Amino acid sequence: MPGTRKLGRTSSHRMAMLRAMVTFLLENGKIETTVTRAKEVRAMAEKMITTAKTNDLHSKRQVFSFVTKEDVAKKLFDEIAPKYAETKGGYTRIVKIGPRRGDAAEMAIIELV
Fold first, then answer.
1. What's the confidence (pLDDT) of residue 33?
2. For the chain, what is the mean pLDDT?
3. C-alpha–C-alpha distance, residues 43 and 23, integer Å
4. Does the pLDDT at position 1 exceed 60?
5. Which residues of 14-42 are buried (b: 16+ CB within 10 A; e: fewer)?
6. pLDDT digits (tens, 9 = 90+) for 30-84
7. Residue 111 to residue 30: CA distance in whole angstroms
8. d(CA 111, CA 92)
9. Is residue 40 a contact partner of residue 6, using CB atoms and an 8 Å limit?
10. Could you tell me which residues come within 8 angstroms of residue 37 by beta carbon, excluding any fewer than 6 positions away?
11. In the 8-state DSSP scheme, what is residue 53?
């Protein structure tokens, strides 16, 4: 069974990048990135939203340990998670937008539905 994508980075660098991207996604609602990064960010973001839906002390500690900005974590519990209270997964959408001009990497927009 394949694990997570390595994205050409060390595990600590990859984790820091994904934490930053998930935080930015939750803060702004959508980000533009490569397709493979978007797929990894989707997995992490959906886990965070699902965790925030329970809204107890344990889930708050888990989210606060992952999301890099405190105000974004608060927004996740106060605004984002209640919006998806009756939904079971599928909180994000990935839309492919074609190749990047510099290196022709396949680009995508990931957004909260």
1. 97
2. 95
3. 13
4. no
5. beeebbebbbbbbeeeebebeeebbebbb
6. 999 999 999 999 999 999 999 999 999 999 999 999 999 999 999 999 999 999 9
7. 4
8. 5
9. no
10. 7, 17, 21
11. H
CA dist 16 and 38 (Å) reads: 15
Per-residue burial over 51-79, b = 16 or more CB atoms within 10 Å of its CB, e = otherwise: bbbeeeeebbeebeebbeeeebbebbbee
CA distances from 93 to 50, 70, 74, 80, 89 (A): 16, 24, 22, 15, 11
The two tokens of residue 100 are: 């990047």
The C-alpha atoms of residue 22 and residue 43 are separated, in whole angstroms, by: 10
Give the pLDDT band of residue 3 (cuts 50, 70, 90).
Answer: confident
